Every structure is written in structure tokens, then in C-alpha cells.
Amino acid sequence: MRRRRLLAALGATFALPLRVVAQPANTHVDPIDPLIWSIAQGRSVRPGRVKLELPRIAETGHSVAMTVAVASPMTEADHVTAIHLIAEKNPVREMASFYIGPHAGRAEVSSRIRLNGTQRIVAIAELSDGTLWSAAADIEVMQAACTDGG
Amino acid sequence: MALAKIELPHEARRGEVIEVRIVIQHPMETGFRRDAAGGRIPRNAIHSLVCRYDGAEVFRATLSTGIAANPYLSFFTRARGSGEVVFSWIDDDEVRDSARARLVVAD
Asked: What is the pLDDT of residue A9?
């Protein structure tokens, strides 16, 4: 009896990590965040395939260079349809959404963004097969924009 | 009429993937700033923008105040043939504007 209990305990210890391996949690996004929900509509957002380039430190948040690129062949059958940018600490979290297609040839968009302080930026790419992929970048902003005269 | 500058390669080869860049003169007012008298300056940002190349849509964006003043955008498209690259946008004051440039494609 004791042996059986021990085996059950052992099983429980190993069962949990196995489930974590089977479905890696995406630390970039919270699926029940209304903004994430409006993009994902309940689909899972997986980390990967997206590269978000931002400086690690910005002197001011008024204008920060940003490039987002997605690893995709950009063919009729397999391409990026949209890229969404979210600033977690901005008064308006949805910074921009870019809509492209197979004609783009390359899934890469650059812009200059405004940041209300040190925060994490998340990019979510939507693919033609309906899957969603994400990347996150942390940026330290010395002087915030938005609420202090920017 | 807003000021905008579109940058395209001087000449592209057919089928080549080219970079299209635009800078638009626009304050992208956040709605949080105050004027000298202390009054709130109302939010006014370009919220929608579209780019058509030779009549077909190649890029579309919805923007917010999270995009810096004088918005800059860059993206890629495949050069299919010589044609007009036309950007159109609209801001929170319902002001519509556009800018155009010609892409020359060699065969």
C-alpha cells in the first residue's frame, strides 16, 4: 500500500513537467487580456518566428526606432497577414497593426514609436494558416513621452 | 495639404523585393499635452493609412498615439512593373490626405 502511494506521488511529480513541455506557456501574452483576445479570438499565441528589434535603452520615449520581422517564405500558401504591436505601459496599449500579404516578399516593418517609460513591447504576427506568433522586447526609457509634454 | 516624403529605390528590377518608406509631417497629438494657457490639446493622430501600388493595396496600417510625431513607416513589396505608389491616410480630425511617387521598374 505504501509502495502504491509512493508510486502515485512519483507519477504526480513527473506528470506536471510533462504537461508543461507539451504546451509551453507564452510569457509574452495573457490570453484573457481583452486586447490579446481581440487579436487572437481564443487562438493560442506561440512564442517564436517574430523578431522585434528595439534599442535596450532610449534617452527619451518620444521617438524610438523599431523594426519587426517575421520568418516567413511570404508565398501565396504561407505568408504573414498582420503584425500587431502592443506597448504594455502606454496609455494607449495598441500602438499599431500592420497588414501585409504575399506581395510584400519580406515580412518586415519599421517605424518610430512613442513610449511612456520603461516597459515591455510585444509583437504578435498573424499567419495565413491562422496561427499566431509573438516576440517581446524590454526597453528602458530614461525620459517618458506621452504624459509629460511629449 | 500635409507634407510627406516617399522614398523608393531609383530603379528596381522586375520581381525584386524593394523597401518603401514614408515620413509624414503630422503631430500625432496624444491628447495628454497642454498648451501655454493650460488647456488640453485634443488628441489627433493618423489612425488609418493605406498604400496602393499600381492600383492594388500592398500595405495597410492602423496607428495610434503610440507612433511618434511625424510618423515614419517602412515596409517591403515586390516590384511588378512601373507604376504609381500612392499613400492615403486619415486622422482623428477626419482630415484625409495623400502622397504619391512613381516606381520605375526595368525589365
From this structure: 60
| The three three-digit cell numbers of residue A88, written as one number | 504594455
The residue to which cell 513621452 is assigned = A145
How far, in Å, are B63, B68, B87 from residue A63 at the CA level?
15, 5, 22
User: What cell numbers appear for B74 in the block?
Assistant: 517602412
* Total Cβ atoms within 10 A of residue B40: 10
ipTM: 0.95
Q: Residue A85 corresponds to which cell in the numbers above?
A: 504591436
Looking at the predicted structure, is the pLDDT value of residue B17 above 90?
yes
The Cα of B1 is separated from the nearest Cα of chain A by a number of Å equal to 22
Which residue in chain A has the smallest CA separation from B76?
A: A104
Residues of chain A above pLDDT 70, percent = 80
Grid cell digits, residue B63? 496607428
Using a CB–CB cutoff of 8 Å, tell me whether B67 touches chain A.
Answer: yes
Q: Would an 8 Å CB–CB cutoff place A99 in contact with chain B?
A: yes
What's the whole-number average pLDDT of chain A?
87
Q: How far apart are the C-alpha atoms of A94 and A99, rounded to whole Å?
A: 15
A131: left (phi over 0), alpha (psi -120 to 50) or beta: beta
Whole-number Å distance between alpha carbons of B92 and B47? 7
Q: In this structure, which amino acid lies at residue B39?
A: G
